[in-house]
Design goal:
Blueprint (H helix, E strand, L loop, with lengths): L15 E4 L2 E7 L7 E7 L8 E4 L6 H13 L7 E5 L5 H14 L2 E5 L3 H10 L5 H9 L3 H8 L16 E3 L2 E5 L2 E7 L8 E5 L4 E5 L21 H12 L6 E4 L8 H23 L3 E2 L1 H7 L1 E2 L4 E2 L5 H20 L3 E6 L2 E6 L2
Parallel strand pairs: 4-5, 5-6, 6-7, 11-12
Antiparallel strand pairs: 1-2, 2-3, 3-4, 8-9, 9-10, 10-11, 13-17, 14-15, 16-17
Helix pairs in contact: 4-5, 4-9, 5-9, 6-7, 7-9, 8-9
């Protein structure tokens, strides 16, 4: 289906009315390749006439200013935001929600699966990607792990990592006569949640389903473990059990069909699983070695040309794919001297 809602560069400042009472507002991100994060303002849901906001954005002055200017266009102001439903705990989605709560008294909602990650972050008092760094070491990339750990990750600010007002499970949220279904979709993070407006046929997908890129898998602040890619693939298939809906993502334009994009993402991961298996060849390799054999992004960039941060993402993704191959019986894994090494099953 064509993306008929895409009326120009999606990250440009302003407000786009997707349907009456449903507004998309892209907010800027600092030095981020994603350019912007979409937040959505929903009118006519809250009993008090306030707005329900999907995702909060990054707590920077530029984002606050862009939000205020967009709200003025629709005749609203920040004080009208009564509820903020966050899809996941990453900084560009959560931190401004907490800041707006402090300013306005808005209620903040977050998936219950994010609780361990938030508690770990506040225990470590650091926002470095501790889980991903651990994965790098187990993937045989200790030197890269040291470099990533030494980077500036933005600084830990306890004021923006407070707990939400309400932890969400799989449930239906009722606002007056309207409903939003909260659907847990672990994968991109353990507690990622999407919000489905079944009456209007809208899926607020956060980073779970994105129209132009594939979300990173297993990039978490919490401790490592589990099978994030297996969880993510299950969460993608879960989307097809609901009626198709317009896709309202956190990054990228609104498009007509969530199901169409889900099919593309599933096909992409099937392709990457096949390439990861081929890269194993006849040897026994760690995830770092396999990642170096693969190309990355739509431009097929060699691993060595990626930045250190993107090399970390690539190795994390590769480890996630190799773990699924083990789960499927197509490879075996052995943990020796602190490193996982994989062998193809013949």
């Amino acid at each position: 289906m064509t993306a008929r809602f895409d009326q120009g560069p999606w990250a440009a400042a302003g407000v786009q009315t997707v349907q009456p009472g449903v507004h998309r507002v892209p907010l800027p991100l600092p030095n981020d390749g994603l350019h912007a994060v979409n937040v959505y303002l929903l009118e006519g849901l809250a009993d008090d006439g306030g707005l329900v906001m999907i995702d909060g954005g990054w707590a920077i002055p530029e984002a606050r200013k862009a939000l205020e200017e967009a709200m003025a266009v629709i005749g609203r102001d920040l004080g009208d935001i009564s509820h903020i439903l966050v899809t996941h705990i990453h900084r560009d989605h959560y931190t401004q929600a907490v800041e707006l709560r402090r300013l306005l008294g808005s209620r903040v909602y977050l998936g219950a699966g994010e609780r361990p990650g938030l508690e770990m972050l506040n225990e470590l008092r650091s926002d470095e990607p501790a889980g991903s760094i651990d994965t790098l070491r187990r993937a045989g990339a200790g030197e890269l792990a040291d470099r990533v750990r030494a980077m500036d990750h933005g600084g830990y600010d306890p004021a923006v990592w407070e707990a939400p007002d309400r932890w969400l499970g799989a449930e239906t949220l009722r606002f007056g006569d309207s409903e939003l279904r909260a659907v847990p979709t672990p994968g991109h993070t353990r507690g990622h949640v999407v919000y489905l407006d079944e009456r209007r046929g809208l899926l607020f997908s956060g980073d779970h389903v994105l129209p132009h890129i594939t979300p990173s898998i297993g990039f978490e602040l919490a401790e490592s473990g589990g099978l994030p890619l297996a969880d993510y693939l299950d969460s993608l298939r879960l989307m097809t059990r609901y009626a198709d809906a317009h896709l309202l993502p956190a990054h990228g334009p609104v498009t007509d069909s969530a199901h169409a994009r889900v099919a593309e993402l599933l096909a992409h991961h099937d392709d990457r699983l096949g390439k990861s298996l081929s890269a194993l060849g006849e040897g026994t390799l760690d995830a770092h070695a396999v990642a170096r054999e693969l190309s990355w992004t739509r431009r097929e960039v060699p691993f060595g040309e990626l930045s250190a941060f993107n090399q970390m993402l690539a190795i994390n993704e590769t480890a996630a794919h190799l773990d699924v191959l083990v789960l499927r019986g197509q490879a075996t894994a052995a943990f020796t001297n602190g490193v996982n090494r994989y062998t193809r099953v013949r």
